[in-house]
């Protein structure tokens, strides 16, 4: 609604009502699909599939049109074009109910079929036929609504009144529903020799029932009792494709229908006043005197039922000649200047009573009328007053829209600055007992800095701080980041949500200087505000900025943020894997030819071992021994492991642990690869722990690549934590920047699992896990 700019101001209640309407629509769709879905045999639950959903909607005359992606509204027919009455307006069912209850007129089956055909008519041949159909339809539908207000039939706000159709409305409706061929059924009418094809195809014509329903809805919206031609045109704009008309203008309403409820004398006075308004609207100066005599005791300043004078109507239409003529005739030029006539500057706001209305300043701020805002402020309007007022006190709950919030949410920066610059008269804030007890306890609620650029001072109380926080939220939600930055410059603290929304807007608008300023301000957000939103929305956004910007300054700022989010706690350590007690031999038999029953060939050198030990060591050794050729003296060749590394592996197996191993730093990576290959988890973990103890900023990138290649997930996670904890230093190194910014290579069948994964995605997952364990879990930092 905001993006399409359907109006100068979008009320928040409109969005709420629209959301509620959509929710009710989806619930209704689901209920109808469930009624038509097949029931599963096993559990008796209706089975919903895409086919069953499409079939149920296509056969539903009420729902199918609502769910089509067309600008016009399709009602009363299904996807095949078959017309049908809505389920809530079942004439046969209502007839049975009224028959059992003894209420209402009885209809025969033939009469019911005739009424149904009348409601579903799409074409008429004459105005007389249409008048008869509308009369019967209105006679039927309005009593049905009195008994069942939820059946979707035309209604009025007062059920004891009747909505009438003006003759011009019937003629307008006949224009849209007229079918010339139907006139030829009359034997007295001769068809024309040349016919212009102006008809619309049958598939786009709505039934009469929908014309009545939409037209009456427009009538009720303007609180009238008669349907006029403009209501029909507005209905055509909704129901027919390619039909448009201008918005309804403000004009003096005809009193034709209203006079039906009045006595003869009052009816005559109404008609005379209506005639007076019409005479003034015609623009003839020689009729002004006669028109004034017809308007009543107030003369040319008489007000219509809408509360408007002839001068007001002329001003609304922009008719300068008529305005001048009325002024010359003595019209009160100050009739519309309400403030000069002691009108309340706060509008309908009443002290000492509950109030849910809006002040003129709120409406002017939402519309962006700078001159009117300035005038109202000069006359003493209070920008702090919200929509909700109880017992003379304007409360400011979260979500209440005051003038600051309205100007900020609609992006009127000049109006917002005008509200800030206004020098407000000193008046004490009304604080609740909770606020009084909490006064001064919140270090984040500091006194707001004076606005040097606007030449005014701000109220330093909690009410003004709440108002500006609310305005900051609305400006961030609607993408008006300039207003958000203005509010921040006043000293209003960031919340995580407003900061993230502002950062998202700047990123989408490619405003790099503002992005740098926002990233610099992240340190102002308290850690206790870190919520799930930081994980679900914040981290993906910041890593996306890092991925696409490739800017050194932004990269450094994001590194600071990531390190701050990772926290001061140490990186989770890796723990040794306790190896289960298996078969072991004395170290004396290590590479001892005596009593050995298997020989490995490593780098061309024999290495003697024993099957009894290797069969239980790992699945890989067992597979090597089982796939060994049958010949007795055949050696098992190990081609990708160095001799000294293989010796360490065998020493680990024969000694039954890592205590006797002396591993050099230059051998750790190769031993890790060998342990991974031979599926020795305890030895692999021991090598990983050695790597974590010896990791440095110079070796971490190569170590990470090797761990990724091997698929060592525990070591990879540790190094990712090391990256995040030391990212401020690492971001300056070329090899780390190359690791971050270069796209991963294309995955091939020969590549190891995970080698082609995105480093930024992995860092994002690691940081999300860390934030959750420190700030969101119940342990609050104990799980690190």
TrEMBL record:
Each ANK repeat occupies one of these ranges, namely: 306-334, 356-382
Q: Which SMART domains match?
A: ANK (SM00248), BTB (SM00225)
- Pfam families in the cross-refs: Ank, BTB
Q: Name one GO molecular function term.
A: protein heterodimerization activity
SUPFAM superfamilies the UniProt entry points to: Ankyrin repeat, Histone-fold, POZ domain
Q: Which UniProt keywords apply?
A: ANK repeat, Repeat
Give the source's domain of life in one word.
Eukaryota
Keyword hit for Transmembrane helix? no
Glycoprotein among keywords: no
Q: Describe the location of the BTB domain by residue ranges.
A: 596-656
Q: What is this protein called?
A: BTB (POZ) domain containing 11
Organism of origin: Nothobranchius korthausae
Q: What is the lineage of its organism?
A: Eukaryota, Metazoa, Chordata, Craniata, Vertebrata
Originating gene: BTBD11
